């Protein structure tokens, strides 16, 4: 039996005093992809942030290789790349300096420049390596952010709308990177409104777990409030 790399059980997320989603289970094994779908506000970004450790679940548990992540959160967090809506680029640094800066946070820092340059090649950014990041277009900035995925090796990629701002060719570069990552046994969980070409991904639609979109959950929430 294939052991799950990462599991979430009965996850509930509350933000701004409102239940964003509740009772959500997920499980991903090595080499798999999981696509989070759902309308605006259904909780895709909240789930990605919760999985990355940036938001705490109100209830439920996350397991990494069968171990509850709250026991040793830093071990779990060292195994993942999180790319959110924002590119987290330092505008005064060049493209290569930005990548080197990010890679420096990883315990397995790349020993030479070649790995960083390979990451830039994969996302067609090498020609811009000495360009200050404040001069990049929005699609180029996104490609620089995505280059982080390849600058240091992590087992789990958590990607929030990774293809926003990318042209068709750049989306293809992202698809190639994800495919190679999965072939090496990595896993990816991504939120997206547009189709990204992935081989047989799992899918979760957040609207099934959101009281905003699921009337049964909304009624249950009102019932629970009336008991308090
Ligand atoms: N920092 C925050 N504080 C309070 N509420 C928040 C916060 N961030 C998001 N929310 C709320 O959580 C709910 C889910 O938002 P989230 O961004 O996770 O949805 P989404 O499915 O990613 O939406 P979109 O498709 O528009 O990106 C929304 O109702 C939103 O108002």
Helix and strand topology:
Elements: E1 6-15, E2 18-28, E3 33-37, H1 44-52, E4 59-64, E5 67-68, H2 73-77, E6 80-83, H3 95-103, H4 113-122, H5 138-151, E7 156-160, H6 168-183, E8 187-191, E9 202-205, H7 215-227
Parallel strand pairs: 3-8, 3-9, 6-7, 7-8
Antiparallel strand pairs: 1-2, 1-4, 4-5
This protein binds adenosine-5'-triphosphate.
Organism: Kiloniella laminariae
Keywords: ATP-binding, Cytochrome c-type biogenesis, Membrane, Nucleotide-binding, Translocase, Transport
InterPro entries: AAA+_ATPase, ABC_transporter-like_ATP-bd, ABC_transporter-like_CS, ABC_transptr_haem_export_CcmA, P-loop_NTPase
What does the model show?
It contains 7 helices and 9 strands; from the N terminus they run E-E-E-H-E-E-H-E-H-H-H-E-H-E-E-H. It has helices spanning 44-52, 73-77, 95-103, 113-122, 138-151, 168-183, 215-227, and strands at residues 6-15, 18-28, 33-37, 59-64, 67-68, 80-83, 156-160, 187-191, 202-205. A hairpin with a 2-residue loop joins strand 1 and strand 2. It starts with 5 loop residues before the first strand and ends with a helix. The protein is α/β, with parallel strands linked by helices. The strands form 2 sheets. Strands 6-7-8-3-9 form a 5-stranded parallel β-sheet, with helices on both faces. It has a 4-stranded antiparallel β-sheet with strand order 2-1-4-5, covered by helices on one side. The longest helix has 16 residues, at 168-183. Helix 3 (95-103) packs parallel to helix 5 (138-151) and helix 4 (113-122) packs across helix 5. The structure holds adenosine-5'-triphosphate (ATP). Adenosine-5'-triphosphate (ATP) binds next to helix 1. Adenosine-5'-triphosphate is lined by residues 15-16, 20, 38, 40-46, 206.
């Amino acid at each position: 039996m294939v052991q799950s790399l990462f599991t979430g059980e009965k996850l509930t997320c509350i933000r701004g005093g409102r239940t964003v989603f509740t009772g959500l289970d997920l499980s991903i094994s090595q080499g798999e992809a999981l696509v989070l779908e759902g309308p605006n506000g259904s909780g895709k970004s909240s789930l990605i942030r919760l999985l990355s450790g940036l938001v705490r679940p109100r209830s439920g548990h996350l397991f990494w290789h069968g171990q509850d992540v709250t026991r040793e959160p830093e071990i779990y967090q060292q195994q993942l790349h999180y790319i959110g809506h924002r590119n987290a680029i330092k505008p005064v640094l060049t493209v290569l300096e930005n990548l080197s800066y990010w890679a420096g946070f990883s315990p397995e820092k790349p020993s030479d420049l070649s790995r960083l340059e390979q990451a830039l090649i994969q996302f067609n950014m090498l020609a811009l390596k000495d360009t200050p990041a404040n001069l990049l277009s929005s699609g180029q900035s996104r490609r620089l952010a995505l280059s982080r995925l390849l600058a240091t090796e992590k087992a789990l990629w958590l990607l929030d709308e990774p293809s926003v701002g990318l042209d068709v060719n750049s989306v293809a570069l992202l698809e190639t990177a994800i495919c190679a990552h999965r072939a090496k046994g990595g896993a990816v969980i991504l939120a997206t409104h547009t189709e990204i070409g992935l081989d047989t991904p799992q899918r979760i639609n957040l609207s099934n777990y959101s009281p905003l979109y699921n009337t049964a959950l909304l009624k249950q929430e009102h019932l629970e409030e009336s008991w308090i």
